[in-house]
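I am writing to request your help with a piece of structural work I have in hand. I set the record out below, with my sincere thanks for your time.
___
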Amino acid sequence: MGLKLNTKIILGFVIAVGVLLLTSAVSWYSIQQLGFYTRQVEHTYRVLENASSLRGHVRDAQSQVRGYLLLNDSSYLPGFYESMPVAQADYQMLQLLTLDNPRQQARLDTLHNRLEEEFAFLKRWSQLPPSTSAVRRLVREDRNRQLALRQMITRVQDDEKVLLKERHRRQDFFENTTPLAIVVSAILATLIVAWLFTKINQELQANEQLQFQLQRTNADMAYRIEVVETLANRVMQGDYTARVAEQDQASLGNLAASLNHMTHTLDTSFTALENRNRELDQFAYVASHDLKAPLRGIVTVVKWIEDELPHELSPQMRQYLDMMKGRLHRLEDLINGLLAYARAGRTERKLEDVDVQQLVAEVTELVVPPTFQVEIPAPLPVLHTDRLSLQQVLTNIIGNAAKYHHRPDGRITVTVRDLGECFEFRVQDDGPGIAPQFQQKVFLMFQTLRDRNTAESTGIGLSIVKRIVEEQKGSIRIESEAGQGAAFIFTWHK
């Protein structure tokens, strides 16, 4: 048995959130490991640096004593006595840095004893009278000690170099996989959201088809009732010769069966429409909470990467992160626009007196740059209508006139004409205009006339405008020629 639409939507969101969370976790783990092995490499370099420093200070200590004995210059002795605490400090730092390595700790214990013996040995020679023979004896007797010290320090360094090679290998591995994990996360998020958009769009199209079928059914029923009413009125006036016209007999051949079938069709259509509206409302709730949350989570993870690892990020990786943030923000804008379109015209209307002139001024302040000039040649009327719906229409039309203008400054003119039952509003700009073959395209979902890299747009705004105007029993059209500005004209009932 097939799954219900509601179950499919929920299951799709669960899978989407699961995949997004999994890819985010993989990215986070890769970043953590990269930071860990970077610190380990730095730690190994410090061990090698301290070992080299210790070796140099031991060598300097012997050189100071040899200089004193050979040249009979006591100025060498202060350097010798200063090298002893420095070498001890190097040793203590080595011991601290290798606390996590028992094998190195064992070597350092032996090294400490040799250092004590070496410095004690050199200290005794520093107290003897200087002579050439003393220098020769010092070199002969200290040769084995110095060799043993160098070998022990070399073994410490060799062991650290092995660790350094392994840590470099792991660091390189995670340095290469971290950007890949982030890019894969972004691609998966894009594919999942695109799939969800496709499903949602299919449901919206199915909803519109149902509404179209309902309109056709209503028109057919009205026509049949009109034919019957015309016949009944003629009979009531005494024209008993009245007959149903030949072209109408097919539609009224079996009136009772047709009416029953029509009633059943209307009931089925309204029930299906109501169910789909409920499903779309539930989808709106799920989308606004469960889909946008992981997208914001990925944006947060990217920000953490930029804040916590500023020195480890290469320029190429920063470019990937910027691309990822741009795509995620665009996905969120598309979700919000699609939800707004799904809800347009289905919210409860709050009727109130609306000063359209004041409303246009408020919209101008919000969406029109100060370099533009908005003109209202004649006073605009006061309507008793739904303020929010009219504000949405004016905001989109006036905002687009400024947003898609080919110059940083321009002129927008708002006028009105009284048509009796309704007003006809006209928003005219002096922008680049819209060619006739594209004037219906702008009202379709996800359709824009300019590259989204030039003017960021979801392509949903004018679709919402058209839907709101039609829900108000009005109409909207465009009068424009390429290069001569554009005029958006819509009617609004009083």
Notes: Confidence is low (pLDDT under 50) at residues 451-455. Residues 132-236 form the longest helix (105 residues).
